[in-house]
Structures are given as structure tokens and as C-alpha cells.
Amino acid sequence: MSTNSFTLTDEMREQSIGVESEPVSMVIEQGHVARFAEAIGDENPAYTVGTPETGGIVAPPTFLRAMRGIRPELPFEAPFTRLLDGGSDWEYFEHVRPGDTITAVGRVEDIRERTGSIGQMLIATIKITYRNQRDAVVATQTSTSIRY
To answer: Is residue 122 predicted with pLDDT exceeding 90?
Structure first.
């Protein structure tokens, strides 16, 4: 159980909402897509040889999880040492294909404080927007992170 003495002030909350991460980019490689599909046990040929329906090889929807380091930094210090993934909601708009360059930016949408069964918690809602090299949004991920 957390024993931190921390208070999220209105000023801290206002300073946090809207903070964005540095952009993180990744070139999508055909071999990476195939290995990812194999790792998750998905034998859909769209991920290895392509299909007429997809117009070639595409990445599985969960492939964008492979991008790391997309975390906006909070503008204050919090005494929490543990981080828990509170889940994510995804929206998909376009296929991600080998050869694409995907750039992701995370933005703090909300932040709040709560006390629960594990003690004091700082709960942040982060929206990550994934864009391809044509600046088209291919997906968004809205996730909840819990620090305690």
C-alpha cells in the first residue's frame, strides 16, 4: 500500500493537461510485421504475404504497441515509484504497411488523484496519435496510467 503524502493541486493539473511527448518515429519493416504476427500467434496472410482485400501486406492492429517511449513528462515531481497500465482504447483509421514511417505523439488529456485499496494514486489519461509519412492519422490510443 502506498504511504505517499502528495496532493495534486489545480495548478498542477492545469499545467499537465495538454503536455505532449517528443515525437517518436519508426519505419515499418516487413520482417518486423511478420515476426510480430508470429509472436502473437496470428496466421492471417495479410500480415505475411498480403491479400487482395488489404492491397498488400499490412501490420496487425496491435503492432503499434511495439513503439516505445511515447510518454509525456509531467511538469512536477510525484513521489510514486510504481506504474500500472490501466488499459487502452484504440481507434484505427488506416492500415499500417511496410515502408510507412509512423510518428507518434502522446498528450496528457486528464490527470487526477484518488485513494483506493492500494493507497494514494495519480491517474493520467494519455492520448497517443499515430500518423504516417503523409501526416494521415492511422490510429489513436487512449490509455490510463496509474502511479502509486
So the answer is: yes
